[in-house]
Amino acid sequence: MRKTIAAGVVAGFALAAGFIAPAQAISATTADLSVLHGIPDTPVDVYVNGELTLDDFQPGDLAGPLDLPAGDYEVALTATDAADASAPILGPITLTLAAGSSYTAVAFLDEAGDPTAKLFTNDISTTAAGEGRLTVRHVAAAPAVDILAGGAPVVEDLVNPNEATLNIPAGTVSASVALAGTTEPVLGPADVAVQDGVLTIVYAWGSAEGESLALAVQNITVGHTAPGGVNSGTAGYAAQRDAIVPALWILGIAFSAALASLGVVTARRARAASVES
């Protein structure tokens, strides 16, 4: 019983830690790196500096962010269960990460359908209060596209492997992808939630010819500049901590008390049954 109660309290503190952790742990000496697998029908193993980092990485999967010291990293993609990185199917590719920055490395198909990769730098500057940031990245084997919101183009002639970024009011956007100059969706529409102080990145990946076009979404909390010019990018976490930790502490105590009470009731029933027999 004591072990069970202790486990409940520890779980409560673990949950609290998960709530208050920022979306990125960037520091003056580190960078954040996420990895998106956008090559259809090709599970891979990902090696970083010769070490297996992602095992059996599936198309459409997004991993990270990894908090890494700034510097150069050699990345290679191999067939799953490869013995090492000596026979990559893509790479090795050198990724240069600068301190204080956020990146997403994407393995994808170029417009001709050949595997390639690119390191995107994520715009993690704060947004205005009430706004979010929407970035759209074209990493699909497809020609130039327009991005439609509510049926109207908001980004035009986006070609692989380029991106476009908009700061827009927080809310839900009905987004779709159409061939440039048209309004008939080839992908979507799909509802995309743009949140206050959050960078939402939408990737169009896959292959038009292979009929495997799909969307992937990545969210990074960047914070916003509150009215009066005060940056609320990190202050929000302190307020979140102050509100959540006491609540979870109370929840942990209540949960522990419930377990203890259950133990007492069970013991009393056992003693009563013993007396009756």
From TrEMBL:
Name used for this protein in its record: DUF4397 domain-containing protein
Top-level division of the source organism's lineage: Bacteria
Organism from which the protein derives: Microbacterium terregens
A Pfam short name: DUF4397
Keyword vocabulary terms for this entry: Membrane, Signal, Transmembrane, Transmembrane helix
Residue ranges of domain DUF4397 in the record: 31-147
Keyword Membrane: yes
Matches recorded under InterPro entries: DUF4397
Signal peptide coordinates: 1-25
Record flagged with keyword Signal: yes
